DNA sequence: TATATCCCTAGTAATTTAGTAGGAATTAAT
DNA sequence: ATTAATTCCTACTAAATTACTAGGGATATA
């Protein structure tokens, strides 16, 4: 039940982009500012791009930029992208063995909702401004 | 960000104990009813015992029993016992590097509180009766 | 005394996480 | 056109964690 460093790193990267909204930031810059290696950040950014959270520009003076205003992107969306959709048990959306059905199901489903509701209420703008 | 099967198994076991409160259940019985192997359950139960959630009796006709009424034991307590105190990031209680300080700290601390508050409101009695 | 149980520790297999590494494709600047 | 900076893609590997398996000792009941 840990948030992976991948998710935390990714969140750091988009927070940095939120603080510099409008400007393209390269992986080199982002790596420097977050302390994550370039190559690993590349992979993380590629996932964020696939999920429509960031856009990219190739070539010299290219880089990454948020695909929308920081106030319109929730922390939840970022974390779900990098954390297997935040599925805290294997059966949030059905299709599980005996352990999941029955008794515990409602418990985990509600916990899942609470977690997502909380994270969806916080925008990258808020996070960047530490206004939480 | 997954709940481990260890935690789910343990929760199943104590739920079974809640349904049979007052009666000692052996690991053999608990293993049968939960579908977990005896040996693995033993380890899980030993952790729960160490954390004061269950009591044990050795020898023939021994087994495990809840250490308190099912309505007095929260799901949160059980899960924290088996899930490294539910520390969703490495620095919930301070002592972390650059990634944890600053920006994301308050985010994770609050999420941690929400998760615990939710799980602490649900008792084993409620869970056993699927009254969630 | 026999048997059923908990208790303790060590080992291992499988999975996931966290990176490393190399190089192709693309674009802007010169 | 050439160069340099960048994203993009894929494969590999190392480390950590999870999920068990296994053996046997200690203890209590019948």
Q: Can I get a quick summary?
A:
The structure is a homodimer of 132-residue chains. With 132 residues, chain A is mainly α.
Question: Do you know the CATH architecture of the domain at 5-85 and 124-128 in chain A?
Answer: Orthogonal Bundle
For the largest interface in this structure, which chains are involved and how many residues does each contribute? A-B, 39 and 39 residues
Overall mean pLDDT of chain A stands at: 92
- The CATH class assignment of the domain at 5-85 and 124-128 in chain A is Mainly Alpha
Shape of chain A: elongated
CATH topology of the domain at 5-85 and 124-128 in chain A: Arc Repressor Mutant, subunit A
Q: Could you estimate the helical fraction of the residues of chain A in percent?
A: 40-55%
Q: Which strand order do you get reading across the main beta sheet of chain A?
A: 1-2
Question: How would a crystallographer describe the biggest sheet of chain A?
Answer: 2 strands, antiparallel
Secondary-structure content class of chain A: mainly alpha
CATH homologous superfamily heading of the domain at 5-85 and 124-128 in chain A: Winged helix-like DNA-binding domain superfamily/Winged helix DNA-binding domain
Q: How many helix segments of chain A? A: 6
Distance between the termini of chain A: 22 Å
Percentage of residues in strands of chain A: 5-15%
- Oligomer status: homodimer
Contiguous runs where pLDDT drops below 50 for at least 5 residues of chain A = 95-100
Kindly state the number of beta strands of chain A.
2
**For the CA atoms, what is the radius of gyration of chain A?**
16 Å
């Amino acid at each position: 039940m840990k948030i992976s460093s991948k998710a935390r790193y990714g969140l750091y990267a988009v927070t940095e982009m939120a603080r510099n909204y409008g400007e393209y930031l390269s992986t080199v810059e982002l790596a420097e500012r977050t302390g994550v290696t370039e190559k690993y950040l590349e992979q993380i950014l590629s996932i964020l791009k696939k999920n429509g959270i960031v856009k990219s520009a190739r070539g010299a003076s290219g880089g990454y930029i948020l695909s929308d205003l920081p106030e319109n992107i929730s922390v939840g969306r970022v974390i779900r992208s990098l954390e297997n959709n935040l599925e805290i048990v294997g059966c949030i959306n059905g299709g599980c063995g005996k352990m999941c059905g029955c008794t515990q199901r409602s418990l985990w489903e509600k916990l899942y909702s609470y977690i997502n509701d909380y994270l969806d209420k916080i925008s990258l703008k808020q996070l960047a401004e530490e206004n939480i």
